[in-house]
Structures are given as C-alpha cells and as structure tokens.
Amino acid sequence: MGIAEAALHTMPGAFATHSSASNLPLGADARRRKRNTNLVPNSRALQDLLKIPRLRSVRRQCQQIDDLARVTEGNGNWVKDAMNNASQVLGDVSVPDQAVGGNGGLNGNAVKPPPQRRKTSSVEDEAWELLQESMVYYCGSPVGTIAANDPNDSDPANYDQVFIRDFIPSGIAFLLKGEYEIVRNFILHTLQLQSWEKTMDCHSPGQGLMPASFKVRTIPLDGDEDATEEVLDPDFGEAAIGRVAPVDSGLWWIILLRAYGKCSGDLSVQERIDVQTGMKMILKLCLADGFDMFPTLLVTDGSCMIDRRMGIHGHPLEIQALFYSALLCAREMLTQEDGSADLIRALNNRLIALSFHIREYYWLDMQKLNEIYRYKTEEYSYDAVNKFNIYPDQIPPWLVEWIPPKGGYFIGNLQPAHMDFRFFALGNLWSIVSSMATTHQSHAILDLIESKWSDLVAEMPLKICYPALENQEWKIITGSDPKNTPWSYHNGGSWPTLLWQLTVACIKMNRPELAAKAIEVAERRIAADKWPEYYDTKRARFIGKQSRLYQTWSIAGFLVAKLLIEKPDAARILWNDEDAEILNALSTNRKRGKKVLKKTYIV
What we know:
Elements: H1 3-10, H2 26-36, H3 43-49, H4 53-71, H5 77-90, H6 123-133, E1 135-138, E2 141-145, E3 162-163, H7 164-177, H8 181-194, E4 213-221, E5 224-235, H9 247-264, H10 268-271, H11 273-287, H12 317-333, H13 341-362, E6 363-365, H14 366-373, H15 397-402, E7 408-410, E8 413-415, E9 418-420, E10 423-424, H16 425-433, H17 439-451, H18 453-456, E11 465-466, H19 471-478, H20 499-508, H21 512-523, E12 535-536, E13 542-543, H22 552-566, H23 580-592
Antiparallel strand pairs: 1-2, 3-4, 4-5, 6-7, 8-9, 10-11, 12-13
Enzyme class: hydrolase
Pfam families: Glyco_hydro_100 (PF12899)
Family: Belongs to the glycosyl hydrolase 100 family.
C-alpha cells in the first residue's frame, strides 16, 4: 500500500461529490451503458491484465473514493460558498448549457463522437461542445479529457489517454466556467496513481513521480464474464516513446491544485492528509541532493512538453519556470506543522538561489549579448566574469541580426561551456507568470514577442521554439527525427495551445491588447482547420504534417484565452506575485557585493 493510499484509510473524509452518474444527461448515461455491454474482443489478454497487482489496487482505490463521497454526502455547504467566491472573482463567465458527452473508455479506447458534428453559432460555442465531448469518465464521474478526439482517426495511439500536462488548460477552462467536479476528481485520482509501484527494466524511479498519462479501461470481473469494471492504467514513461519520465507532470499538478482552491474557494482538498503527503513527495523528489552545483533542476531530454530529442537535456528553461512556480504554489498550500519546517526551509533557500541564477545567467538582451561577445575564457578564479566558460564563437549568426535593440528573453539552457540561444515560448511565458522574471525582464520578453511578431506568431500563435534546427545541426541534435523536421512539431512548429499562457502573461503585465491580437489571429482559421495540434512552416501556414485534429488542449487553450480576455481578474488564480522575501534576499546579496574569501587549504 502506497503512502497516499494509506492516508486515504486514516483521513476523516474531505469532499462531497457534486453529481453522480445518475445525474448525468440521459444520452450520455445511455451511451455509456451500451458501451459496457460490448465485452472485450480479446478477453484472454485482459484476463492476463488482471494478474497485474496495480490493476487490483485501482479497483480498491476507486471504492475508497466512492466510500469517502458517501461518508461526506450532504455536507457540501462549501459548494455554495465556493460559487459565491468564484462569482466575486470571475463574474459571470458561463456559457450556454450543453449536453455532457460521455467518453468513458472501453477496451482502452476513448469512444469517439459521430463524425457529423452539428453547426454552432460561433467558434467559441463549437469549442465548448468539443471540450465536453472529450471528457473521460471513471466510476461514473468525470476525471479528465483525452488528448485528441478526431472521429476520423482510426489509430489514436496514445492520444486517447488523459495526459497531465494536456489537461491543465482543460482544467482551467472548467474552473473558469464553474465546473469544479472534474478538476477535483482529476487531482485526487492522479494523486492515487502517484503511490503505485513503477519499474522499467528492474529499476524504479524516486517516490513522488506523477504519471505522464492514464487511461480508463473496462475489463471483465473475475469469475463473471457478463460483468465489467473500470480501472485506471497509468503510464509513468515506461511505455512512452524514448521511455522518458515526465518531470513536468508533478509541477503542473501542484499549479492546478492551487488554481482549483483559488477559483472554487474549496481549500479542503489541498488540506487533505493525502494531498499534503503527495505534494511533499513531489517536492522532496525535486529538492533531493545530487551532484549538481546549480539550483536549477537537472533533467534528461524529452522530459516536458518537448517530449522528443531536441537537445534540451540539462537545465531547460521550461522545467525551471514550472519548478519555480510549483515551489511558490506549494509554499502557499503546505500546512504549518513540525514535519514541514525543514521542507519549507529548503524550499525557501531553493527559491532564492533559483531566482538569482535564472535572472543573472539565463537573461539575454543586446547588452548581455555584447558582453558575451567580449568574454575572456579559461578564467580560473572565484570572481570570474565568464563563470561557465562560454566561448564567444558559440553565438550563432542568426542571433546577431535577430535580437532587437528593445527587448530580451531567457535562453533555453545553460551548462558548462554551453548556452542554448534558442527562444522557447513556454519557458519565457511562464517565467513571467511565476514572477521568476523581474518586472523589467517580463516587459522585455513581451517587447521581443511584439517586435518579432512575424517570426513567433505570423499566421498562428505561437512558435514553441525559434529558430528551427536545420541541416547538419538537425541531424546531430535530433538524431534525424522525421517528426521534428525543420519548422515542424517541436522544431519550430506553432502550437495554438500556447495562446492561453501568452494571455495570462500579457494580462499580468497589463498588456492584454497583445494577447487579444494573437487570439484574433487564431480565431480566423483554427476552427476551420479542425483544431490542429500544431502548424508547420516558418509562418505557420500549413497544418502540421502529423498533427492530430480536434486536439483538446488546442481547444481548451483557445477557450481559456477568450475567457481571460473577457474577465482579466480571473487570471490571478494562475500567476504568482513577486515574492518580497526573495526580493529582499537578492537585494541584500547585491549590496554586500563580492565576498572576501578566506584562504583555504586542502587537508
């Protein structure tokens, strides 16, 4: 039994369900019953699955959630308070009522809606309908949304699963709409998956790892071929392409947990024993001591949104921005108790060191680029200017002409003798959202996006990175990846889902007009193009050559951006204000100047 699972047995109960399967629309409920009457074609294979211990534990955990709901049934007074609090913060952001499409998985495959979709009055209405159709149900309750829901896709691969990172914009959209149940269920069920045993080739990762995704499967019950039950089947990276563990999943989970509490007003979820335990496990995994000399988080290639080989191994900006944000969010939510004192102290120390490191060494503008151009190398001393021994010849020719006189950005990666000068959108945007960037740096990043609009936005927002790796560089760094060809997918492709992060960053810096301009660009064609996963070419003129259609986070990202532009104050559930304690520590450190080091001896 895992730590989180054991906590469920001891806690007094903490939430009441908003609805049950019987309260769902008749059409969705009837469709789900009909699907469950179709037994699995390969029942022998699924009988083998029954021998897997973790599938048995899924059934126990499902029962525990139901029991908790019955124990606390009727004690849902917090719902009224939550709705009142949400209405004060968000205003009326609801959309017309729409039927909830049941999308419970059968035989590991999410059921697809009919190919002929009804016409709606607007792009936004269509997006809400599609988001509802992507919902996945487990034990009669919504627990997430599948990655893509194209009715004409006969081979969905793993796009019929619920991905933690992909669900974040969906979860935010549901929160802004006032539909809290699906987000609460997602938080609690993914938490249970955290405690499962996970191995690959006889090796187990550290405790606290969150899965990349999970699937709802319907399997026959032991000894009764006519009865079925639903189980959760997670993937921690052992089935993923490249077998890379998802470092960002746990960080996004913490960020969503805080957003849920702020938006719904329900703080009982984050105060639960099992949730507090799960959060501490994630933090301890990230804060564990290692060989690294830097406060940044060391990860392998492909451990975040860019989940294929793209030369981001080391200390990629995206992970550092999410790490910083998750640390701040966790500090808000951790209960003050004796067992948390050391963790909170380590967390505060890491925040200060990480903030200084990123602001000082990752920042690049015209002035900093000129400094690097004049760097001396091979400096052996405690007060070296070129601390990481960066060779000026690393400066790529494209950057000299590309960087504007006004504006700047955080580079993609920093390691000894290596700077990755590419612009990575998610890392820079979330540096603004999390306040890892200073106010000046945050405005400079938006200045750069505005100045380089034709490169980073063009005909569809937003380039995941710029520029693309090409020719020999593409062959060496990606291993000649046929999916990450130049200006495609992660290699300079344009991803509509990044629209919501751009919107939050712009609203935080009081520049909503920049986000509104990007939303207008997306709205011209995204629905007509059937909501692609990504776009190809330098100006994002083509739908990606391997892009999935009806991609859920493209849909949800658009909806969140629209909602936030209409109600900017709602974006506060996502951003972190600049921390006064960190500012004070950094300013004190600068005032002291260089430390006079005592002479040391090797004994």
